Amino acid sequence: MKNLFKIAMTICLVFISLLKINAQKKESMENTALLIIDVQNDYFKGGNMELVGYEKAGNNAKLVLDYFRSKKLPVIHIKHIATQEGATFFIPNTSGAEINKIVLPREDEKIITKHYPNSFRETELLEYLQSKGIKNLVITGMMTDVCVESTTRAAFDFGFNNTIISDATATRDRELFGKIVKAEEIQRSFLAGISTLGNLYARVITTSDLLKGK
Question: With bands split at pLDDT 50, 70 and 90, how would you rate the model's confidence at 180?
Fold first, then answer.
């Protein structure tokens, strides 16, 4: 009888622990929205500004999107339309400016158009997030060192808790002082910088981490 009692108590304790873990996971995702920044055709193969690693980043952004959809959590698609003189990509009314089919928005998902790297600048993003009671942002998109970074830093200034999905972002090689800086190095440097001082601006995790509930 004592053994049966111990087994029953052990099962109860395990069950209670699982309930607590599930509750904590649910709580951690409350007031959380997904931002998908500029995953548009010009950044993909054949586009006017093809990125390094666009395929991997796009596929991972899709996995993150599917995760949020499965949890019925808010999704916001950011779409850049170039308005400055001399722009060579994201030109208005071109196929390159359209959101790529890999993360094609649903009718019930918000689309916000921007004209600057910072997704909050002269857009309704802040007002929309506040109206939904959003406090936490999970951020994916392109390019890591331009629109993703500037949006994340602005979000921090507005008081949001940010998480960047590192392998659901991408950029391209740059040139400085006549030398090429590889996209991989840029990715690592900018993500390291934005997560400095104990994840000051953002926590940086992988797609796998998110899907595992980390």
Answer: very high
